[in-house]
Structures are given as C-alpha cells and as structure tokens.
C-alpha cells in the first residue's frame, strides 16, 4: 500500500532559491535520481522544507566549526524554531582541493559544544559526505514524514489571486512557507480563515494546537496606533 | 564492548535517569581504556557493573551507546543492541560511533537506521580520544543553565503593531497610510475581514473598498 501511496502522491520538497547556486547537485539529483517533486521558491528562512512541520538546514562542516559564524547560525536556527515543530541540520563535508590544508576540518571543543547544544534542544543532526549524499538524506526525511502523514500534499505552485493571498499569510509572524500554502489552499478566503476556530486552523493549516492559537490570536490582536507613534 | 557481552536480563540499569550534574556513570568494561583516561579529571566518573546495553549514563536521562570501528565492520550485531535499548527505555539514547577510513563505508546505512528509523541521535568520532572530548561537552552542556543553550532560549517577541500593519499592507492597493486608516476603524484583522463594502467605503473610497472586499472574501 505504501507503493500505491507513493505513486499517487509524489514526495514533495520545497527548496529555497539560494540553493540553486549553493547546492545545484542536491536539487538536480532530487529530481532525476529520487523522483522528488521539487518546488524552488523564496523560503528566506531555511534551505529545505520536507513536510508540514520539518525544516532542513544544510550546513558545511567548516561553517559549523568556525566560531565566527556562531551568532549568525544561532539567529538562523532560532528563527526556524519559531516557525517549525521539527528542525534537522544536515552537516555536509566540504570539498577540499588537493593541497588546500586551510580548509581541512579540525574537530574542536567549540564544534563539540555546538553539537551538544543542538542535541539538547532536540535538533536532529545528519552527517553527509557530499551533495549527492544530502539529496538522498532529504528524500529519506521526506519519505519518513510522508509515512507519518505530515507530507506536503497541497499544490506548491500558486498564481494570480492566490499569490497575493499567499503573501498575506506569509506576513503573519512565525508562519512558514508551507503553513501559508496550506492556509491558502484549505481556506476559501481570508475572511473564512479569520472566522475560524483554533482547532479548525490547526486542522487546515496542518499545524500544532499551539501554533494555531498563535495564528488565531494574531487575527484577533487589537491594533493600537499610538504604540507605533 | 560488543553486544555479546551484555547481560540479557538488564537492558538498562534501573535508576540511571538521575545522574548528578558533572558526573557520568561508566560501564566497568571501559575501565582503563583510552577514552576513560581522558575523561578523568574533567568529569566525575562512577564505575558500575551491569549497565546493560549502555556504556555511559549522563545527566538529564542521556545514555551513550558506543559503537566501535570493530563493531561496525564485523556485521549488524550492534543493531540488535540498539533496538533492545529503544524498546526497553525512554531515555535519550545517543550513539557515538567510530567513523574511520575503515568503517566510513558502513556509516550511511547505519545513520539511516539509527536516526531515521529508531529516532536516536548519532554522532560520529574518529577515535576514542575524540569521543572523550565529545562526552565532556555533552556532560558540560547538561550542567549549564537552561538559558545558556541558545537553541533553548526564548526569542524576544517583536512589536505586534508593526506586524499587523505589514499584514494589512499585503492587501493589493493598500499602502501604509491606508492600512493605518483601516486599522483605526477596524482594529484587528478579524474585524477588517468581516467589514462590509459600505463600511470599507467610509474609510478608503469606493474603488479601493471594492478591491479590499474582493481580496478578503474571494473564494478559490
């Protein structure tokens, strides 16, 4: 029955447009070798969205090991945490040219402490040896999420009026691209969404009850113009 | 250190969920190893027999299961050990594995099994010496204040007014000035979404009122 399901619903992964230049092999292998439906869009916050709740950040080992990147990395992951229930970091081995010793990975205390912090916070970590390997891991992650009924099932291309509505939903704080897509496709109109209960938002947007509450209170938040003055 | 030596009757030591901060309970079989020598003086070690499937118990319900290069190369025996651990306890299992030139080809399928199928954490090291450094950091991490882990820190919230204003500006034809005028009349998005064309007209004029109304109510 799993095979049937897969045939009917190809596994879908949303890819940030910046990955076209930084991980071209990942994208092309996802499409050609793994037959994944890839939609390139401007995700801004993360590299890949593989399900309704899981974001994947692709990082090079050297990038993680370099402590000068610490603040940027922390900010990025915290931002993801505000939008996604689950976060996975794929640590990819860097391609080192022959003779280039400056780019060889050296394990440091800093690296181990970053790993420890991520593990403690429940962030999943996967190790990859190449872009090829990363593509395989992304496919496995998407498949696993699919089996747990968290796969992306809505159309990922939006046009016309829907594009404008999508942008409207994307402006809600801590709403991810895939949540905005779900809102866009599962509600007839913004008005209908605004009149919905927390549990209705949770079901249609495919988000946790807590996230649905956040969206609900945002729709009902009373604006006070004096605060901005 | 392979699964063959573990006693079938005690998959996980009872009571190991409460290891004090800065400490590790170490399986007796590790006594004298290079790994343990490098831990000494850095964290407090308590040696015990019968830890079952676990090699190290760390604070905060963390269990370390160590898979050596030899375990990896010599077949799938260690998988049984991991499955038994997974079934026997709900402690947080971290698998530390020796990923060396010799064992690296076995790593990808094992990662898939441990992380994706069992839902455990897998951290590769090159040697026992690297493993000791990693275990020290894992123990220190648990001793820290919750707030000092940046990935557990609560983000400061931003100004809701700014966000709401931006959301209203996503409606085609509505800029900052019109958005403010609308929000003065309909103080939240819920009320704005339920406004009639007539009510909207009183704020922004006929053409734009029609446009806003259509945007908010138009079905697929």
From TrEMBL, chain B:
GO terms for cellular component: Fanconi anaemia nuclear complex. Residues 171-219 form the DisA/LigA helix-hairpin-helix motif domain. GO terms for molecular function: chromatin binding. The keyword DNA repair applies. Gene3D superfamilies: 3.40.50.10130, 5' to 3' exonuclease, C-terminal subdomain. SUPFAM superfamilies: RuvA domain 2-like. GO terms for biological process: interstrand cross-link repair. This is Fanconi anemia core complex-associated protein 24 isoform X1. It comes from Microcaecilia unicolor.
